[in-house]
Amino acid sequence: MIRTENGIFLLETENTSYIFRIDEKGHAEHISYTGRIFPSSEDIAAIAGPRDIKIGDGTYADEENPAYLPSNILYEYSAPGKGDTRESALIAEYGNGLITLDLVYRSHRIYKGKDLTDSPYALSSDHTETLELKLSDTIEPIEVTLFYTVYPEEDVILRSAEVRNSMDEPLVIRTVSSMQLDTDDDLWDLISFDGAWARERHENRRRIIGTEHIASRIGFTSSEHSSLFFVARPDADDSSGTVMGFNMIYSGNHLERIEKSPFSKCRILSSINPAGSAWVLEDGESFRTPEAIMTLSDEGLDGVSWNFHRFLSRYISRGCWQEKERPILLNSWEAAYFDITEDKLLRFAEKAAEAGIELFVMDDGWFGRRTDDTRGLGDWFENRDRLPDGIEGLSAKIHALGLKFGLWVEPEMISIDSALYENHPEWVIRIPGRTPSPGRHQYILDMSREDVIDYLFDSLSKVFSKNVDYVKWDANRNMSDYYSSNPELRHQGELFHRYIQGLYRLMSKLKAAFPEILFEFCASGGNRFDPGMLSFMNQGWTSDNTDIRSRIDIQQGTLRGFPPSAICCHVSASPNHQSLRKSGLDDRFGPAAFGVLGYELNILKMNENEMDAIKNQISFYKAHRRTFQFGRFRHLPSFDKDCIFWSIEGDDEIIVMEYQDRNGVNIGRHHRLIIPFADENKSYRIERREKYISPEDLGELGESYSKVQHKPFSITVSGSVLKKAGIALPNTFMGRGFDENTRLMLDNSSDLFVITPID
Fold first, then answer.
1. Least enclosed by CB within 10 Å: which of 402, 472, 579, 668?
2. Is 474 a catalytic site residue?
3. pTM to 2 decimal places
């Protein structure tokens, strides 16, 4: 709900209140973003406090108002030049290098729903309301419209800005932010999600000191620094305390700035990264920023995560797969790499069907001259030496086995050794006169060009129309040699953003043409995992790294801002192909179940016991798939430094995973399971999923373990006990042999428990 009276604006969700006002100088001044309150005008004045603080060397508004200090005011949207020396939301150049702007209120309007920006954008519902706040410079005809769209049930406010030039001369946008939030104190921790290829989105927390930048300059969202970030009170943890969360619905270069001012204020900004970028507006033209997501919870980090999960599932993910359960797949990559033939693929598929897998995916190596990673990209037609009956023939045979059929593509890239490059070398992003830098022996197509988009749409449409059910869309290198031969560019600084706009246009056309295909985004793993991609493709490849220990950190960070239905998790081979770490087959299944399950291993090499284990995994996952993909994810407390507990809550069950990093020897105590959100008025049945243990994993102890009659774990307890005291789980092996209650929890192992409420 959005209300306004006497220059005060109140934006309310079910659990939050966002307040700002138009101050005495006409500026939009932030008052508070907090848990839900019901303030009067007097209350709001009390929250803001009197304007009576003076600073020794501060620049003030005018001689009549020495306490009006721009560098100490909480603005809704800032620009440089009038005394605010903090990071600016907008820097726009006019008049031979001038950047000073003084943005004041002109008008506003409130309406149901939201306007539809250029794709991607969030959808709306009957409960959605939008505020448009028009600001303009006091001298120059430069206008900024701020958009606030409120999603009450999800406790989300969506932010964006539009800059319009009405001068007779060009306006060059150097920096433009989607969202600005100024807070009245600086007692906050910053939580960012950082890493690199194969270790994406690791959670990092630190106190805000000075100015923090989170940024991508690679052309994509980046596995190095996600656009997702949290700002939390120092005492906030997983389940309690005030936390704010932010992300952008965008897939290109981004910049997040979090600045602690000298006067104990904090400024938070989300924007397209201005590094190497510029946007030219002629008279009458405008530029609209991507939408930024802003949410707040007093229930800790998991509370903010739940807001993100609901919002992304309802308003970002869309199409026929939005609420549909995702199929379990087998991908050919780590089983065969480039060495594929139709016969080998069919043998994989036959074994997959036997195990209960539902979708078979043919990865790289099926097209053009593509027999290794040095050639073939851009030539989107099947290699008939490898697929004598073509994609259509292979698809028919896969479907005859009762499986869906999918394939891998990398449309944005091009190999020098390709028919496409021979015909269109001008389509490569490269600087004339310079030798471009390769990445993975490949180069990048100029997606800002409409002829490139047309070519890709036509060639990919021919492939996708051959009974394809699923597409994995990859992009395996970062951008370099920034130059476009596109004559429509007014400035080379437009390339980064126009590239992303072109990508979105292509995906929009393909989604419209093939609405039934399940698209999965990928960029060398999780290099472009963002809400922008999720608005076109319902799920994403979380990381190329499928090692169990690595995936705990990767998935934990990803789940902070993305729902399980968007996170693809595969059971792969042991030793793992990225870490060489060994782990048990059922141990790998634990974290892989917390999302969209898949397999990426040579299923033809599995023995009978291993195949039975995979069949049992798939049967278990199917029985609980709705919970795993669409349930509420939470972290549970752990009293053992080597254990992590995850939970996911469905309509009528809770599933818990216990992950053990390292097995303790002679520790003399049980691991304890506590469910802080258990209902004290109910009882709960807790059952452990029996898992397969390979005798080879136990060496000489395997025989003695197999002789023990192991007792299944099943117990019923009250909700109050489960919530407050917790239960002792069966003991793990501690060095003194096995008995009927011994659980085998090795290093890098997991256990799953199904918890069912009983009224």
1. 668
2. yes
3. 0.97
